[in-house]
Structure formats: C-alpha cells, structure tokens
C-alpha cells in the first residue's frame, strides 16, 4: 500500500516537474521569439537608415562632382577666357569713371529702376522722346509715367534692327521686330533717325523735357544729339541705356555724349546709374 502511494506520488512529482520544465521551455521560446522579432525590427530600421545615409552620400558625391566641375570651369575661365577678361576690364574702367565723375550719384539695381528714377525727375514743359523702341517695353514705362501728366510721348525706331554692327554678338539687324509695336500713350515714328527727325522736329516745336537714348551705336546717338541739341534746356533729363560697363563702351553712347558736350559747352550733372548694368542718368544744368 505504502509502495503504491509512493509510486503515485513520484509520478505526480514527475508530471509536475515535467510541466514546469515544459512551461519554462515555452516561456523561453516565447522570449526568444520576441527578442528575435525585436532584433529583426531593429535590423530593418538600421538597414533603412543605412540606405538613406548611403543615398544622401551618393547625392552629395554627385553634387561635389558638379561643384568640382564648375570650379574647374571657373578656373579655366579666370585663366584663359578672353570674353570674361574683357568684361572685367570694362567693369573696372566703368568703376573708375564712376569714382571720378559720379561718386555721389544714386545707384540703382535694375535698368527699369534707373529709368523710373529719371522719370520722377522730369519737370517743366517739353516732349518725352525715346530713341530705340524695339518691342516697346521701356517706351511703355515712359508713357505710363509721363502721359498722365499731360506730356506728349514719342518713340523712334527703324524696327529693322541695328543699321550697322555694334559690338560682338550684336550684328547689323539685331533687335529687328516682326511688326511695329503699339504702345498705349505713345506715338510711334518709324524709320531711320536721319530720315524722320528733321521733319518731326519741324512739326513739333518746343523743348525736350526727357529723352531716353537707347540707340546703342555711336553714329545713331550722335545723330539724335545733334538733332535735339538746341531743344535741351536746364532741367532736361536724359537716360543713356548703353553708356558704359561693356567691352568697347568708350566708342558708342559715351563717346557721342562727350563729343556733343565738347562741341556745345553744355553743362550737366550725372545723377544715377545702374550698378551692374549699362544705364546712366544725366540732367542738363545750363
């Protein structure tokens, strides 16, 4: 009897131990599986982050290659680019001119800002004239500013382009228009300045209060200044659109203006210029 009880007790104990071991094994497997899943998730996240970093490194390498190529190009230009050297010399010569002749002039940052600065100065009686209309953009600015103030506005252009070569990249025929533009508030006078100005001035007596000289060429600018010279008065405002700051600037509008001043003894003051372009504002003083 006692042996049987002891046997049964041993069996129960063995079963209990087996169950404990089994549960322990199951719990260990669960914990291992959870740890495995956690490690797998961490590895997946790390792989994703690594892929992102590698992608960024690849993009950075591409950007560095572009920058290096650009630096090589700039170095090459600095050493051997004739066009750049001409531009640098032209800017330096223009800066020297500013230092000597217009150290207190207003510096504008866009050609249209320079033009509007000049238009705000226009006062007194007289016509407003533009020489070199092209598509009519600047003539539209002139008309919008001066026509509401009761001033007659006229634009002159041959519309078949430059009558002769101007500078590198600007051959005869450059700026030709497919048609004569319509500019609200302004009257267009089409033809060469030499052909149209004498008759126009004969029909339109009186002073010139404002002139926008966008004729580019020495010859064309000289023609205009000689034609309207006796219409300029103290207070007349002139804007030269290609006065300086390009290779060869000393041979065109600048030359025409300085020769005109030498011939006539006209007194004037420089009031403004475009800091990184070619425009200069002048006001006649006597």
Automatic annotation (TrEMBL):
Pfam families: Methyltransf_24. Keywords: Methyltransferase, Transferase. GO terms for molecular function: methyltransferase activity. SUPFAM superfamilies: S-adenosyl-L-methionine-dependent methyltransferases. It comes from the Bacteria. InterPro entries: SAM-dependent_MTases_sf, TylF_MeTrfase. GO terms for biological process: methylation. This is Class I SAM-dependent methyltransferase. It comes from Rhodococcus olei. The lineage of its organism: Bacteria, Bacillati, Actinomycetota, Actinomycetes, Mycobacteriales.
């Amino acid at each position: 009897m006692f042996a049987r009880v002891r046997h049964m007790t041993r069996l129960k104990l063995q079963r209990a131990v087996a169950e404990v071991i089994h549960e322990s094994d199951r719990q260990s497997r669960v914990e291992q599986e959870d740890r495995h899943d956690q490690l797998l998730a961490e590895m997946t996240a790390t792989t994703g982050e690594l892929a992102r970093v590698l992608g960024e490194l690849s993009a950075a390498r591409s950007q560095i290659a572009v920058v290096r190529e650009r630096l090589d190009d700039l170095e090459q230009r600095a050493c051997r680019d004739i066009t750049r050297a001409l531009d640098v010399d032209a800017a330096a010569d223009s800066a020297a001119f500013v230092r000597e002749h217009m150290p207190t002039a207003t510096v504008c940052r866009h050609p249209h800002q320079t033009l509007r600065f000049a238009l705000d100065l226009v006062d007194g009686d007289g016509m407003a004239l533009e020489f070199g209309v092209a598509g009519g953009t600047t003539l539209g600015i002139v008309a919008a500013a001066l026509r509401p103030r009761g001033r007659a506005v006229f634009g002159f252009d041959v519309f078949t382009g430059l009558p002769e070569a101007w500078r590198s990249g600007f051959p005869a025929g450059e700026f030709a228009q497919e048609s004569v533009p319509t500019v609200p508030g302004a009257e267009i006078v089409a033809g060469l300045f030499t052909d149209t100005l004498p008759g126009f001035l004969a029909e339109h007596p009186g002073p010139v209060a404002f002139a926008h000289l966008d004729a580019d060429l020495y010859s064309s600018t000289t023609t205009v200044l000689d034609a309207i010279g006796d219409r300029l008065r103290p207070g007349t405002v002139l804007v030269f659109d290609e006065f300086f700051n390009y290779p060869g600037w000393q041979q065109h509008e600048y030359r025409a203006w300085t020769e005109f001043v030498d011939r006539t003894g006209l007194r004037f003051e420089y009031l403004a210029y475009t800091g990184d372009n070619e425009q200069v504002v002048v006001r006649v003083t006597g």
